[in-house]
Amino acid sequence: MTGTYAHAPGFIVGDRPKIVTSRFEYEDSYTLTRYLATDGYQGLRAALSRPANEVHDEVRTATVLGRGGAGFPAGTKWGLTPQGVYPRYLVVNGDESEPGTYKDRLLMERDPHQLIEGCLIACYAAGLSQCFLYIRGEMALAQERVAVALNDAYAAGYIGKNILGTHFSVDIVLHWGAGAYVVGEETALIESLEGNRGMPRLKPPFFPAANGLYGQPTIVNNVETLANLPWLMCNGAEAYTAIGTKTSPGTRMVAVSGHVKRPGVYEIVNGVTTFRDLLYKDEFCGGIRNDNELKAFVPGGGSAPWFTPDQLDLPFEGSQVGAAGSMLGSGAIMVMDETTDIPAAALTLTRFYAHESCGKCTPCREGGTWLERILSRVVDGKGTSADLEQLIEVGTSICPGDFPHASNEKLGLTAVPFPYKMNTICFVGPSAYAPVNSALVLFREEFEARIVKRHTIPVTAVGAAL
What pTM, to 2 d.p., does this model score? Predict the structure, then answer.
């Protein structure tokens, strides 16, 4: 299920450093005993030995990018909270629900103490009073292992009052979600934590850093983002930025699914590894299944615009992938080989997003449903040529203007930079249109082959020959 992992934190396999997956090969990797035997909680000790502002500066200097989708630097985000306003909270987004994404689940299942240590470092550095760890409802094993790890960490004195004999105190609360995709959006997650229905809030005024959980300043970070912090505290920003590139330092976890020989989760060098490396090298996926030809791939989770083999040599670098018309998003690549039924693949993704709409925005609630209905008709061989134009019309009612894609010229459209415009509060509505647009732009002929060809039959009016 996974690639090859090293034995100790930061150990290098070949030329690939391991920052967050170094314990994965141990059968007991999720236990406190194993964590302590592999330098666990040493990063916390190192952080607590320094002033909090220095720890914050270290994270800012390292440019630890968010691994949840937006890629916003964690240290910069921490600095957005208003000064002198307390209490302030850390909310951990463990509601990993983007199609094709399962890296955070593995981090919580296999190394929960690393996440907990990252939470503690973040709370110390940013002056956060309490941490809320929100885990997706379907991740039963992750919930269980994080719960046990929290209990063990409390008992060992790593969480609670006067941690490790210092004046630093913090509590971590575990919260299980109910399985709603929209809760991956940070303000919807906060609504859910407060006991409300998970629906996104309007921004402004509800920017979490200023007005978040219970109306207090709140930092929302992704699981993998926080899991980087223990290694960073032990090794320093200079060692961290020596990996990857200046704009994309460190490593990142990537989940690969679909038509490859060895799907799984791999920790890769950020900004350097290309899509071709990941899909074809033996140390990663080893090529396309049955040695088929690659047809298309989704580079950043189900909501990302699709790529074709022409983009294989792009590196995992946010700005370059964005300039090409897509995004790295949640770190999930879905691979489609030459046998893929493209209209059916697009329908599968669109149906998911239509179903997951919270209903708050009319363009998303109605538009996603209509996209699914029209596309279903086309896939079933009952559509008309007008349906294809209707798909674009409905889609652009959700995303006004041209949808970003490097190959939009095939439809006479002009590519625009990512992120796209939207008539909705959050990204769920545009996500329903992303696969439709990509499939139509890149493979319109497959849709046209499904269209019912209706021929007019001449009819002679009664009495016309008289």
Answer: 0.89
